[in-house]
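request received
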Amino acid sequence: MSDTPDDYDLMARIERRDPDALGAMYDRYGGLIFMLGLRILHDRGEAEELISDVFLEIWRCAQRYDPSRGAPMTYLVTLGRSRAIDRQRSAASRSRGHISSEVTADMASAALGPPATAVFEESALGVRSALVVLDPAHRQAVELAFFDGLTHTQIAERLNKPLGTIKTYIRQGLIRLRDSIRKE
Amino acid sequence: MDCVDRRDLILVYAAGVLEPAEAADLRQHLAAGCPQCAGYLAEAEAMLALLPMTLDFRWPPIGLKQTILNRAKTQSPAAEYSPMRIGGWDRIILPAAVAAVLAVALTLLVVKQFQPASVRSPQDQKTIADLHTQLLLADGRLAGVQQSLQGMKFAELTGDAQPAAVGHVFLDTDMKNWYFFTCGMKPAPDGKTYELWLIHGDQKIPAGTFDVSGNGTATLLGSIPPLPAGGTVSLAVTDEPATGPHQVPTGNLQIEGVVE
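response:
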């Protein structure tokens, strides 16, 4: 029997002001939020600030998390994406930095427990498989909507496609992604 | 539309790319507490949360974790804040509902009365008479509840960006609970929603997002942590990206007003 607390336990402990629980949650999902921040903000410094914002927010406002609405990981990613898109839209300049080679050293020395890694890899494999089989045009539209927070109109302009086509791409892409992941 | 048909719509909504009018209808349906659609929303959000796993993996800097934990130790939890938690609204709902009737009836009455008498149909004349009656009744009720309004605070919100719109905010004595009503607002632009902000000094506290109905009205109920004494409190509505929530206003000012 594993003594590793699940994510729901950690969130409950964070609400009770347990800093070790916050640290454990960071170990599990800090990297994921960082990846998300890098993809949306294209800036390492901004992505680091995003992680701080997200984890300090769940520390200060732990009572806002409602377990009946979804898993803690879903809450963290939804919060992270929202904050990242807010930052992206209010940033005065973009792409000030680039991803440096020091990241490789960080990856080698950071600690991440085996249970989190195993769960992560299994979920990652499933969603990657589902994304690969999407029509490339649908995939591109979904990624622009999700990671760049673009509206239908903005995506249509960027891809030089009719608005109706983009709406169809996004809708069908999301539906196929959902149905593929459910089959995994 | 039944809930099974909404499942795909909810997926697009969760991704933040549903058309504003459809998103507003869906938000209303979800706010009514439909358990099936709440389940679809949870399913959609869980699926979307997996998408970052498709990215090339990167670790944050080693020292960042300790920096965050050190900052966490110095931060106390936020005071209870729930933009949509409802409780003890009696003193606010009644006068606010009366004000809402007054606002809508007055708007309709002005529109009808400015039609030339020669083109008013018998139905219009009846409508004008009915609206006059509503106004008298509402005015009477408002007078009746004024006794209970002692200590309550009010704000009227207007703005150049929305010359036809007016918002009313009622706050209770301790300014812990508030009720917001607006009418005459244009729908938010594509991809955007409206957000109400409570402003005190440098603080800009998000107080909830909303979309207007077909007749340009919307309401919000909320609670806020007690504000420090002194200083002016004002409220403002901006248009923000539909992918909320937000920590700071980034959109265009629509209407604003100062709490009296």
